[in-house]
User: What shape does this take?
Amino acid sequence: MKKILFLTLIFSLMACLPMSAQKAGTFEAGEGSFMLNGKPFVVKAAEIHYPRIPREYWDHRIKMCKALGMNTICIYIFWNIHEQQEGKFDWSGNNNVAEFCRLAQKNGMYVIVRPGPYVCAEWEMGGLPWWLLKKKDIKLREQDPYFMERVKVFETEVGKQLAPLTIQNGGPIIMVQVENEYGSYGTNKPYVSEVRDCLRSVGFDKVALFQCDWSSNFEQNGLPDLTWTMNFGTGANIDQQFRRLGELRPNAPKMCSEFWSGWFDKWGARHETRDAKDMVDGMREMLDKNISFSLYMTHGGTSFGHWAGANSPGFAPDVTSYDYDAPINEYGLATDKFYKLREMMAKYNNGKALPSVPKAPMGIITVPKFEVNEYAPLANGIDQIVADRNIKTFEEMDMGWGSMIYTASLPEIPSAGTLTVDAHDYAQIFINGNYIGKIDRVKNDKSVSIPATKKGDQLTIVLEAMGRINFGRAIKDFKGLVSDVTISAEVDDHEVTYNIKNWGNCTIPDDYETAKNAFTAKSKMFRANLPEGFGKPGYYRGYFNLSKVGDTFLNFETWGKGQVYVNGHAMGRIWRIGPQQTLYVPGCWLKKGKNEIIVLDVVGPQQTTVWGQDKPELDKLQLEKSNKHNNPGDRPDLNSDTPAAQGQFKGGNGWQTVKFGANKKGRLLCIEAASTQSGNEIVAIAEIYALDANGKRLSREPWTTKYADSEDERGNHTGDKVYDLQESTYWQTSKGASFPHLLVIDLGGEQTISGIEYLPRAEQGAPGSIKDYKIYIK
Ligand code: GLA
Ligand code: CA
Assistant: This one.
């Protein structure tokens, strides 16, 4: 009787399963190991992101991961690419994540899904949709009723797409992540619990749930019923990373849920790389210790269109390429790192040979130089014009991405003065069509000098937004001019401040339709009154002919700043300063014969030529001024100052605190290192916090680097790395530069400081860690 009942159950279950579905299975965190269908299992996951790879290439990239010896694909779900307008979901084409998971399964891979709602990932706003900001006072990633309501709507849709694909339902999904590194944002267990409950309620009730964080902060939000995993990068001391977890949960399986193979690039700094050997050694050590991992990124791909995010503190927008110095490069090919890793992984494949490395779906082509010189003025892209007393942000204009032109009539200001405004992110100022200067948020610019004006002079501000910040508290990143515009000038021996009112607010959305229509649209009734001579911001169109289709790298080093569209596909941002000078154009988006390109250049090109190379250029800076902070004039004179503290740090990894004898007031935090633990001359610091009078960490939002005697710029180990919120990045002096080393941080204003917290490098033995130190507050 029992048997018959059982069989009927099986048959009725089978009847509701789709044809392709496989046998149901189980996956859970067991004692000391993950358990797959009841047997111990080490997760070897490859992180790749479906929107960063053209759909035509998904299968190839998955096969490349498999050829590395991986058994799982790890993905984020990017909320804002699926719900670009509130309530309108798109899971089709390149957004068809269910299809992506089925493809992984077809290739014999498991899948880990990280549905946010926040994902970080160097992605616009960390994956959150910009339209959330239309509710100005919204609290993101907290129990704000509107935020939580939208999270639930989104996750319900995710559930519809992916819950049928969990392992319990015969699909490939073995684990689902709750939120993302919440410890780097705050402490809020009720919020994290609500996200967990939400995920359970949308169909992820049987699949294993986990939380990822850093070893230094995972306890802040760790929920008792979830699996805890750690994130850390190449070179990190692995035992140290799992020490605390081992103390709290001695029998829990260990997993590095993001082992960083490389790092992302930001505009204006050198291309990041990480050593292949360190990466392979770390992964071998984990395999020897039965530690599961996900290699972030195994293949980074490209942040096409306007999807690249920005880092903070400060404003550090990410480049379009997400190559990441990963083993599989941006365009899907195996690198040296790939082969080194594959060789090691082959030894951990139960004696079986690894699948062969698949052939690339397309070859690489070059494109001879061609002209892109059909021109349409920027103003032709204007969509809405709103006259208002006040200046409006993008969000107030109901526009997500793009540029705005702001115009106002000036009063008579009899002497030269300073125009001040908070511009997100890149503003060019014109008076009567003449270029006056720019305010670049990357450089922390807030103002520009302007000449005396006559009543009725026309002020025009051309503003371009870059990606919204994706990390830290600054993710609430409104775009446009986000403060009043004021002009201060000396008038009759008095400083007078004029608050400019009555604005024309004009939106220029960033999309192909707008760009294309700019060439046919009659310029809207409004004229931006921009000069013909200066750079000529605007739309440029050209064509190139192909006899053979393939992947290529279009070079834009003679262009200014903006966006590129090829055959209607948004390819990504360009910016003269580099380091990225070429855009990856996948052959699957090109065609034989005539191909169209439109460049929106908000600054204007020096030459209107473009060509296709067979290699990317990801490391060519064309800066107006070097990034180094070693200008002797910026070095404060500390000779007659008494240190706030001096002594010796301990050796080894992990945070150390220095309490000052007495609170100190000042604006500059100066750290002097006279020796290192190892005895060699290279000093490194991963992170620094300053503590306020109550011993609490001060916000590092306004911090800038004032001076560093030496910075190893080749590895991007600049001073700002000590307050970039990333424990895996660090300031490091160059080989040969002699003691004492000095790093001076401008705190952005006077502060009362009671001590500091210091973190040396995360690598085994904490290379570069300081011994004798002096700290000054000035
Ligand atoms: C963190 C985040 C990732 C990514 C990496 C850096 O670990 O979780 O999304 O931003 O940093 O690349
Ligand atoms: Ca750092």
Observations:
- The two ends are 85 Å apart (CA to CA).
